[in-house]
Design a protein that fits this description.
The chain has 6 helices and 10 strands. By secondary structure, the chain is of the alpha/beta class. It has a 5-stranded antiparallel beta sheet, with helices on one face. The chain has a 5-stranded parallel beta sheet with strand order 7-8-9-3-10, sandwiched between helices. The mean pLDDT is 92.
């Protein structure tokens, strides 16, 4: 599964321009805040339309300005984990995980390697930041995505919670084998998790 992202996008007084080709693993968009990293994730997900260029994921063109292609968000099969977990507050963890689940990754397998079995009957508002992130990753995995988009998945977490999430991402990379496009500004995360590193904003 490959990512090919060749796009430009003007946002206010700055322009994002990215040329990226990556093959599997964890591709990290690394750079300071304001570099446009999250905007790139949004363009890949179909939430933000590039001004020009092309995006291909796994050999499928999901956006081509010249060819008039702009595949709908729901057909891109992106598992998007935002900076905020965005869990449904009116559903317990078990129901959050089941929402949109398609059975490609067994639910018990995801629950086990994410270490969230003890959270299944909890309400989202009772979860810590690290617990909520793990549940959000689980929900994304169970939706049968073709790839994952992770936006600063380790931000604002203490050392122990960061380690839990990093272990989960390593499992996704090395065992599940799902391609990941991840945003971070942390050099340690980049060095440990990145298969390919794409600097932005330097």
């Amino acid at each position: 599964m490959s990512f090919e992202i060749h796009v430009t996008k003007r946002l206010g007084d700055r322009e994002i321009a990215l040329d990226l080709s990556a093959e599997g693993g964890v591709t990290i968009l690394f750079g300071p805040s304001g570099a446009g990293k999250t905007s790139v994730l949004n363009m890949v997900a179909g939430l933000l339309r590039p001004d020009s260029g092309m995006i291909r994921v796994g050999g499928e063109t999901v956006f081509d300005a010249g060819g008039g292609i702009d595949v709908a968000v729901e057909r891109r099969r992106a598992g998007y984990v935002f900076q905020e977990a965005r869990l449904f507050p009116h559903l317990k963890v078990r129901a959050n995980l089941s929402y949109g689940a398609k059975g490609a990754v067994p639910e018990d397998q995801a629950i086990a390697f994410l270490g969230i079995a003890h959270l299944l009957d909890r309400w989202p508002l009772s979860l810590s930041g690290g617990e909520a992130r793990r549940v959000a990753i689980g929900r994304a995995l169970l939706s049968d995505p073709a790839f994952l988009l992770l936006d600063e998945p380790l931000s604002s977490l203490d050392a122990a919670r960061r380690e839990e999430i990093m272990v989960a991402i390593e499992h996704i990379r090395d065992v599940v084998g799902l391609p990941v496009l991840m945003v971070t500004h942390d050099a340690g995360e980049t060095e440990r998790l990145g298969t390919q590193i794409v600097p932005m904003g330097f």
